Structures are given as C-alpha cells and as structure tokens.
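Appendix C. Worked example: Protein kinase domain-containing protein
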Amino acid sequence: MHFVLAEGGSFQPIPWGLRLRIAIDAARGLAFLHSSEKHVIYRDFKASNILLDTNYNAKLSDFGLARNGPTGGDSHITTRVMGTYGYAAPEYIATGHLYVKSDVYGFGVVLLEMLTGLRALDTARPAQQLNLVDWAKPYLADRRKLPRLVDPRLEGQYPSKAALRAAQLTLSCLAGEPKNRPSMAEVVTVLEEIERIRPRHRRASPEEDRESSSSASSRSAHHGRRHQQQSPRPRSGSDGARSGQPSPRVR
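Step 2, the predicted output written as structure tokens:
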C-alpha cells in the first residue's frame, strides 16, 4: 500500500471508497489475528506492511515482529520495544507493555494517513506538524475543523457524514489508554457502516432556485427565437404558397 499511495512524500489521491475498502481489508486481517486462539499481536502495523493486489485487495505482510498475546487472564505481555516510531502505541514505547489493543493504535495512525493523505512522520513538514497524530488530534475532535484535515486532493468527493464518522473512529483508536480503544472487530463493524454511507444531494437555496428558473426561461426564449429564425421556409411549389393560405399544421 505504501508504494501505491505514496509518491513524492505524500499519498496519491485515490478515491474515498477505495481508501475505505483498503482500511476494511486491513482491519479484518488484524481482527482475525486478535481473535485467534493465541491472540496474535502484530506489533508493527503500518502502511508499508499492507500489500495490495492488482484489484486493490489488501493483505497484511511481514509478521517478523508478531507475538502471541497475553494468556491466563493477563492484560499484556512485556517485551523489548521494537517497531516503527510514529505507529507504535504510547504505552508500549513508555513501558514495553504490549496489549492486543496496541495494534489498534497503529491502525488508527494508518487510518489517519488515509484520511489526510499525509505520512505519520515527515521531517519535511514544519516542526509542529512533524508527528501527524499530535498535529491532527485537535482537528479530529472538532467537526468544524475537520474539512481542513481531510485530504484536499479528494476535492470534496466524499460524504461529509462518512468523513466525520471516520474521524471519530480514528480518534477512538488513538486513545491514550488501551482500554479506551475499540477492538478490531468493532473497528471492522464501524468501517463497514461508514462504507454504506452515501453522499447527500444538496438542496438548492431559494436564491439558486430563482437563478436556475431565470436561466431556464432565458434559454427557452432564446431557443424559441432561434427556432423561428431557422424554421424552413415553405416550398415555392406547395399548395399553401400558391393559394396564399397558410400551410396546414401537422399534429
């Protein structure tokens, strides 16, 4: 996915629906690992570990850092911190405690990349925007600021309600405490609901209705004058022309 979406330091403007489909496929992969008998933790979930086939079906790759999850009622395992900065969950970086929901945080980062079209970390950005999560969180929490966050190369071609729900889901995945994050099964459910949201057709304002009506009337009048000017003249040999009577109207 990294090579399909990234070009010149930013993501290519692939359509909203395709971004969602990739996210759903990846989320299903993580949900499958988490629901397995050993509750496998991927540990290094990031955009470059999502591979796409020619039909843009997403599959997870590179399980080199994956670990079996906690057993016996434990909430986490303790392990040496490994992974990719910018995607690793804060509790894992700080303590080495790895939770199943540490993967959910990484998924939230990738979802944020899809929403914004920006990399998780980019040294070419201003210092305050270096870390995408730190910079974007205030926008995710404010629906009035959200349009400034969504990838402008989508050119508004997405349902605003869907973008809002995706932002809310992203924010919940990025919660500071693992217990406050959704499970990946819950993430899949929400993403599927978002995918079903269709754009609303905006109703024209009264002013736009009047302008449209005026424009239609003008076009109609112009068409009528043009039709009169271009109407074929009666043939000189027609009965109507010889008698001086108007030609009959064909119904």
